[in-house]
Amino acid sequence: MASKKFVLVVVAITALSAATLGAQSKAPAVQDSRRFFPDDPLWMDDDMRNIAPVAKDDLSKSYDFVHNTFSKGSALSGPSVNINTLGEVPDSSWFTNRIGVRNMTIDEVLRGPDTIDGPAPGPWEVIGKPKAGITPKFAIRDANGIVFLIKLDPASVPELASSVELIATKIFHAIGYTVPEDFIASMAPRQLRVGKDARFKSEDLEHLLKYQQRQADGTIRVLASRWVPGKVVGSFRFTGTRPDDPNDIYPHELRRELRGLRVFSAWLNHDDARSINSIDSYVEVDGRRFIRHYLQDFGSTLGSGSTSAQQPRGGHEYLIEGDKIRKGLLTFGLWQRDWMKAKYSDLPSLGNIESQVFDPATWKTEYPHPAFEAMDAEDAFWAARIVAQFSDAMIRSIVAASKLSNAEAAEQLTKVIIERRDKVVKHWITGINPLDQFEVRRGLRGPILLFDNAALRLGITAAGETYQTTWSSFDNMTGVERPVSDVEEYSEPVSWIPTTEFGPADPSGARYIVATIRTMNAAFPQWKTPVKVTLRDRGGVIDIVGIDRSGAGARVGSTTNN
Question: Rounded to the nearest 10 degrees, what angle do helices 407-429 and 392-401 cross at?
Answer without folding.
Answer: 140
